[in-house]
Design goal:
single chain; 455 residues; alpha+beta; Triger factor/SurA peptide-binding fold; Chitinase A, domain 3; 3 domains; 4-stranded antiparallel beta sheet; 15% strand
Length: 455
């Protein structure tokens, strides 16, 4: 049983939107586990979606065989989850459907564009997604249940490592652990008041019919993500990445209404409600960011210099200082640590922005940089950087790379437990596979259960 099942779900979701215009000729059932069927179109569309997402080079040999195996695995897990009465609430499914639909709307710019491209209404798309979402969730829950008690001991990690041929050991580039405390300089009150007056003037011009909101947004908004489309966003009340003040201010509005000036972590806004259905809305906004002068930047540098000195003198720990002073929401709650795409705090130099690389160039492990000014998406900020650790390039070894090795060893152990579970349980399932897949090497384990099944 291979791991391909675990990459399939997103592809089967995307096929609902992208594959509608292309029909599969002579669609038929090519596999079945219990009462769960697999259609040829399921597999073909999933492969095409994989290619459309730029991953054609990552397709396994004989992709139809591999993708069919993935679906057989998922169906078996779903059947067992239903047999074990694993609990899955309608609220969980509805929340997942809402997130998926919002993601597609954001991708295509509007609900109308999504419906035009897919040839389906939002209601129809939700219904199309319902069964795949439910099956994916149930399969994940069943897999977690099967391996929930699998643990790994240090002795097993060493045994796993010792089996790796010397010429197959991984080579690791230099990795670092780096954290930061960030302060965003506050604009002068007089400057803020001037920006607020400008926004109220834009509001007056729209309400008096002198200007259109979208025209003013294109001219004056400082939000690069929406400026060119007239300040428009599709938003949802429950989405966490929106600024709290921004989302609350938007959902107080009626259609066509314009908000008073709202302060967010990005600056000052006025928001126009275009349309709203429940927790979903289409809005336009104009963002103005009060300019920061050298005076405000120097105040922030002085504050950070004082914080740095307190850390060095042991008056406060770095983590405590992050929690108390840092304005960086992405790292504030993990000790200010920079993380890589996999969520690890051990990252390579090329995963850092250029300014951080310069900041740590002359630092030794355990040292803190002087306060440094940097640009964060058009906003001037100040930070101190802490270099926690730096490894030299090296061949994988148990001392320096224990956690990575242990994670791989645990994955292998879980995979063996899953394979045993399938070998023990597949003989109890009704399984059919179309004979056109008789020569698929990926399906050898499955064919023995089809051929041994009593008619």
């Amino acid at each position: 049983m291979r791991k391909i099942y675990f990459i399939l779900f997103s592809l089967f979701i995307y096929q609902t939107v992208f594959a509608q215009p292309k029909k599969v000729v002579a669609d038929k059932i090519i596999g079945q586990v219990g009462n769960k069927i697999i259609l040829r179109s399921d597999v073909i569309n999933a492969i095409e979606d994989y290619k459309r997402q730029g991953m054609a080079a990552q397709l396994p040999p004989n992709p139809e065989c591999a993708f069919l195996e993935g679906q057989l695995i998922q169906k078996a897990l779903v059947l067992q989850a239903e047999k074990d009465s694993l609990s899955l609430s309608n609220e969980e499914i509805e929340a997942a459907l809402d997130n998926q639909i919002r993601g597609f709307i954001q991708m295509y710019g509007s609900k109308e564009m999504l419906e035009e491209i897919s040839g389906r209404t939002i209601y129809q798309l939700r219904e199309d997604f319902r069964v795949p979402f439910r099956e994916k969730k149930l399969a994940d829950m069943m897999r977690s249940k099967i391996v929930e008690n699998v643990k790994i001991t240090p002795a097993e990690v060493r045994a796993y490592f010792n089996k790796i041929p010397t010429d197959s050991l991984a080579y690791y580039e230099s990795e670092i652990e780096v954290s930061q405390i960030v302060i965003t300089p506050k604009a002068n009150k007089d400057v803020e008041e001037y920006v607020i007056k400008q926004l109220y003037e834009y509001k007056r011009q729209v309400e008096n019919g002198q200007k259109r909101f979208e025209a003013l947004a294109k001219m004056y908004s400082e939000d690069p993500g929406s400026k060119e489309n007239g300040g428009m966003y599709n938003i949802n009340r429950t989405e966490k990445f929106w600024d709290k003040n921004f989302i609350q201010g938007a959902f107080r509005l009626k259609e066509g209404q314009i908000s008073p000036v709202i302060r967010s972590k990005f600056g000052f806004h006025i928001i126009q409600m275009v349309s709203r259905v429940g927790d979903d809305a289409v809005i336009r906004h104009i963002l103005r960011i009060p300019p920061i002068t050298d005076f405000e930047i120097n105040i922030s540098k002085q504050k950070l210099d004082s914080i740095r000195q307190d850390i060095i003198e042991g008056k406060i720990s770095f983590n405590e200082a992050v929690n108390k002073y840092s304005d960086d929401e992405e790292s504030k709650f993990n000790g200010g640590a920079k993380v890589g795409p996999d969520g690890s705090t051990h990252i390579t130099i090329d995963e850092l922005d250029k300014e951080t690389v310069i900041a740590i160039k002359d630092l030794k492990e355990g040292e803190y940089s002087a306060p440094l000014v940097f640009d964060d998406r058009g906003t001037k900020k100040v930070r101190i950087v802490y270099l926690k650790s730096r490894t030299e390039p090296h061949i994988e070894n148990i001392r320096e790379d224990y956690n990575k090795i242990a994670a791989r060893a645990l994955d292998e152990k879980k995979q063996k437990v899953l394979e045993k579970w399938f070998n023990d349980n597949l003989p109890t399932y009704y399984i059919t596979i179309d004979k056109e897949f008789i020569n698929c090497a990926d399906l050898l384990d499955w064919w023995q259960f089809v051929s041994n099944r009593k008619e």
